Amino acid sequence: MRSIFESGWIGLGPKTEQFEKQFSEYIGCRYTVGLNSATAALDLSLKLLGINHGDEVIVPTMTFVSTAHVVKYNLAEPIFADVDDNLLIDLEDVARKITKRTKAIIPVHYSGRPVDMDRLKEIAGDIPIIEDSAHAAGAVYKGARCGSLGTMGAFSFHAVKNLAMGDGGAITTDDEEMYERAKKLRWLGIDKSTWNRSDQNKSYWWEYSVGEIGLKCHMNDIAASIGLVQLSKLEMMNARRKEIAERYTKGLLDVETPMMDTDDSKSSWHIYCIRCQRRNDLSVYLKDRGIMTGVHYKPIHLYECYGNIPTIPNAEKYFEEILSLPMHPGLTDAEVDTVIGAINSFSRRNHNGKGTSEETYYQGGRH
Fold first, then answer.
1. In the CATH hierarchy, which fold is given to the domain comprising 2-229?
2. Is 161 annotated in the active site?
3. From 161, 183, 184, 266, active-site residue
4. Span 226-263, pLDDT tens digits
5. Which among 3, 55, 64, 96 could bridge 76 via Cys, Cβ 3.0 to 4.6 Å?
6. Full-model pTM
């Protein structure tokens, strides 16, 4: 990292190029375009496909809001699909919702669990697929890494992700034309980055062309330097996440735990999400014992900015039950066991009729 500051080059430069090359090799694709977020990656992916007014893009409703927001950024309409028992996009619902206006599908590898891409490709036909791989750095589907399976992949390197740079994102693809255009679009439509222009040793090195209006959403060399270190540790960190998931699954009683890995589907275990009754009570019970949890996610179609959308049954049902437990490679076995013990204790209290209702918590002033 010190060498970056000593070089005086901390923007879009050689470390970004190095990270892009190494990440492409890791994912198993020809090209990576480093960006400042997964939201930018999804947004640019739609721009590369020419998505515009009147088009439809199918997205799962149970995901982070940016998956749908980027469709609106491009003046198109997100069509919300339900989720299955594993909280992945319901492929049969996708099939029902494809129309002549469907111009792309964005499956989300929720929690790091790969979507059944073979089945999705059968359903999609010629419709482009953008893999939302924000949770799935290192996840594997039938021997291939997520992000190499669709038309494009979109990754997040946010501070809480498996490969964390503080913030960042990337597009992965095998399409050279999309790759070259994406490099311009991330840098305001300019055809050459400052680094590339400075290396040409020409009299008029400051000259460049702007063929179309782009955004400013490129990665920088500070983030890329962090990313190179994190990439070298990713397999080890994901292996630890899997150990934690297995420990949770073995120890937890009376809650529904996520599907474990199979020969065809290997999760990156970004999130460990249980389903349980009295989810709100349990979350407060754990918080009172110093254990923070989360809910991933409220279905997007329930937010007022998306208006009145018909009921999407599975997502709405599961939203009332899901709870994300602590999950990061720094957790010790003892800390995982503490979480397990607290959840099992809550279950025993409920079975013995000693549970505390959510109403009691709130009347007691615990907001």
1. Aspartate Aminotransferase; domain 2 (3.40.640)
2. yes
3. 161
4. 999 999 999 999 999 999 999 999 999 999 999 999 99
5. 55
6. 0.92
